[in-house]
Design goal:
single chain, about 280 residues, alpha/beta, 7-stranded mixed beta sheet, 3-stranded antiparallel beta sheet, 10 strands, about 45% helix, globular
């Protein structure tokens, strides 16, 4: 790798971290190369050095945004990490249901939801247990930094490869319709979820408070200070008694004092005493 190429990788990595907090280790620069090749072809940019120079100058905000979105890790699937998701879909939601039995109101936030599979998995869980939730007001919010990912999420449109990742044939046929080589969420599923653009590094807008917040496989890509920032930005959005779900390899320990591990549910976190909205 030439000095110029190495500098280009560093500049593009820095742009990704500046806008999203995500970092790309030097041994994974190939990911940047793969992610940006289609964008470079579409914009007639000859090489990474030229693209890096354009991004550094930021003379074309639209190109900068497209570049950052292309580099963001949008890995997701339906019912991802099934043992953990089963804990959420069963015991955790049953606990929240009992806790909110007086209001019959449930609000769930799927943060950094990418193309929406996690949010739709939550909606499928509710629909498959409709009798349990009869008479309840249920809101599921999915948010992400990528406008491109959110556009797909709102359509609920997935390729054959995407639809098969984690989704059973029964759920696929019950909640999606085939259109050519793609599968599209039925209206009954799509109306369960609202999607909105949000950067986890910025203050949480007026989303209100949630009973369950999922922020999975996000912190692992951030530096320590950004992890703390994201967790402490989430805290004011947590309803009293609510639960935060992180990825299997993530924790709040050593990152923030606003959350603590749940004693009842492994892999889930609750607001620490006297930290509500602090």
């Amino acid at each position: 790798m030439s000095i110029a190429e190495a500098r280009a990788y560093r500049a593009l990595s820095a742009a990704l971290e500046r806008h999203t907090g995500q970092t790309v280790p030097a041994n994974r620069h190939w990911r940047i190369d793969m992610a940006l090749k289609p964008l470079m072809r579409a914009n007639s940019v000859p090489d990474l050095q030229t693209l890096a120079a354009l991004i550094e100058m930021d003379t074309d905000p639209k190109l900068t945004r497209a570049c950052v979105e292309a580099m963001v890790n949008n890995e997701t699937s339906f019912f991802r990490d099934q043992p953990n998701f089963a804990l959420l879909a069963g015991p955790v939601l049953d606990h929240i249901r009992e806790l909110r039995s007086h209001t019959k109101r449930l609000r769930i936030w799927s943060a950094a939801c990418s193309t929406g599979q996690e949010a739709y998995s939550l909606a499928i869980t509710i629909l498959e247990n409709a009798e349990k939730w009869r008479g309840w007001t249920i809101q599921i919010l999915g948010s992400d930094i990528s406008a491109t990912a959110l556009a797909q999420a709102r359509e609920g449109r997935y390729s054959q490869f995407e639809i098969q990742r984690g989704l059973s044939v029964t759920h696929m046929l019950r909640h999606f319709e085939q259109q050519g080589e793609e599968w599209v969420a039925k209206d009954s599923l799509r109306k369960m979820v609202t999607f909105t653009e949000h950067n986890m590094l910025t203050p949480v807008r007026h989303f209100g408070r949630f009973d369950v917040i999922l922020c999975r496989n996000v912190l692992m890509y951030l530096s320590d200070d950004k992890r703390t920032h994201v967790l402490e930005a989430i805290a004011p959005s947590m309803e009293e008694g609510g639960l935060l779900m992180l990825g299997a390899a993530e924790t709040v320990i050593g990152q923030t004092q606003k959350f603590r591990a749940s004693k009842a549910f492994r892999g889930f976190y609750e607001l620490a005493p006297n930290r509500q909205g602090a």
